[in-house]
């Protein structure tokens, strides 16, 4: 059985379009203060945004590495254009850093080179995970949709592969060739003027009955609710999960990382941790329904009788 | 170009064969296929009979096993593949790498097609599946323009099949958990999207409200025809406006682009709709077959009557046209 303290934390890539200086300073602070072991950086959602962070990439990598963090370079979640494939291929050729595959094309390009698998690749069972490991995957972040029953099966069958789960953040639910975000502001993707940059934590999508439901992030659709597996960390560790992914939201991610470390280390109990997390990220309700094989939007309180509740 | 037609029932299968389909695709009555709806799909015996009928008429049968294998229950999918092979399926349509690896190893002679659910959207991805699993055909995602398809065709080592008519996913297929976020049931895991079991209609004043799980998907004022609450085709509030945030309730129709698709190197045209009745299948297949056999200038009039059969009677060329994005 893995000790809770032997676990590690991964900071996922920033999915949203942040102002370039904000993106840089965010990572500087992560480097200096956050108890995360590795940081995934790079544009993941839309290739049109790539140029924004490029001027700061080198200094961010250096700052993170000086602080002892492992840097992993992210790749695009949906690759359709020539220049997008080319960019991944070139990165694979020149980069000395570990890369993360988020799409089939990256899997092809990274074959036989050590790499990680991001939560946007469909790994639903052990045979698929085994296949990816045989092609060079060293760590696999399982999809947010996966219920605990499946996580347990996969980790039990493949104890030598490092598995990670998506423990904090709005859930990446869908990606499209069409940009609903641009369309909502009267633009189309090819002429978007980067309006997604106006919504650093996503643009809320409410139902016609004013229920908070989803959020738009460029071509990506994320959940309104924020996944949190703080209450489930002990079960996941017991099942052999070695690492937990924190997906950046527009909140104090250093505090979010510290809180997860404290719950893993046993210095804060899970219930107190959840209460604190609700304060740290008050913009959205917490949800853990996917883990419990229920609707992804619901929160299942573990302390009582596993009662599922819909967000208010 | 081949015409690939849907069949959700043995009756629809017969209609598709009789109407001139080059191949009919279908699935078993369980969670192994992405149209796992009540009352649809085939038992082993029904598939045996269907394949025999198709073979007599010179039509191929493709069996879709295109959900992702549930961890610990992989045997259900392996058994599905074994039975489909034994029953003489001309191709298996697969999405899960683990299942592709299993089929490629166990049945190296079996034709393997990559399902749209695998989301292979570029040459690197497609060639990876060709090299790793000897995939012979890829069903392309409905996220590409015709120019994209032409470029992909020049750079891959297998055939291309594209959707030309029927339902339209706005999101990259096989990469969408919107349905399970609201209902707990997803295309990838359960073979359903926005399932009827979670749909409710209620009256609110003069309006009809459609709900999926706990969420309102649409409200229809009196006099407006109410549609099915497929999550991505709902009306939502964004900032100060409301409307169809992702896509209108339209269906796909790119039959006007047949020549361009042919020039792009497309080998097969696919009709969506395993959930449709046999009359629909018969009408759509026979009309499209006639259109394919006609000179381009005569196609428009033949295809016009298909429009009346589309969802909401409104159609789009979707991502095939660049401005859709």
Task: Briefly characterize the structure.
Chain A is α/β, with parallel strands linked by helices. Chain A contains 10 helices and 14 strands. Chain A has helices at 20-33, 54-66, 82-94, 104-109, 126-134, 148-157, 180-184, 233-238, 253-265, 270-280, and strands at 8-11, 38-41, 70-73, 98-101, 115-117, 137-141, 162-175, 203-207, 212-217, 220-228, 243-246, 286-287, 299-301, 307-309.
Key descriptive features of the protein:
heterodimer; A: 312 residues; alpha/beta; TIM Barrel; eight-stranded parallel beta barrel; two-stranded antiparallel sheet; 10 helices; 14 strands; globular; B: 325 residues; 2 domains; eight-stranded parallel β-barrel; three-stranded antiparallel sheet; 33% helix; 21% strand
Describe this structure in words.
Chain A is α/β, with parallel strands linked by helices and 312 residues long. Chain A has a single domain (4-170, 226-281), classed as Aldolase class I (TIM Barrel). Helices cover 32% and strands 22% of the residues of chain A. Chain A contains ten helices and 14 strands. In chain A, the strands form two sheets. Chain A has an eight-stranded parallel β-barrel with strand order 1-2-3-4-5-6-7-11. Chain A has a two-stranded antiparallel sheet with strand order 13-14. The longest helix of chain A has 14 residues, at 20-33. Chain B has 325 residues and is of the alpha/beta class. Chain B has two domains: 2-168 and 250-324, TIM Barrel (Alpha-Beta Barrel); 178-244, no CATH class. Chain B contains eleven helices and 15 strands. In chain B, helix 5 links the parallel strand 5 (112-114) and strand 6 (137-139). In chain B, helix 1 packs parallel to helix 2. The longest helix of chain B has 15 residues, at 278-292. The chains are: A alpha/beta (312), B alpha/beta (325). At the A-B interface, helix 3, helix 4, helix 5, helix 6 and strand 7 of A face helix 4, helix 5, helix 7, strand 10 and strand 11 of B. Chain B: [4Fe-4S] cluster binds at residues 169, 176, 193, 232. Chain B: One of its GO terms (molecular function) is metal ion binding. Chain B: Required for O(2)-independent ubiquinone (coenzyme Q) biosynthesis. Together with UbiV, is essential for the C6-hydroxylation reaction in the oxygen-independent ubiquinone biosynthesis pathway.
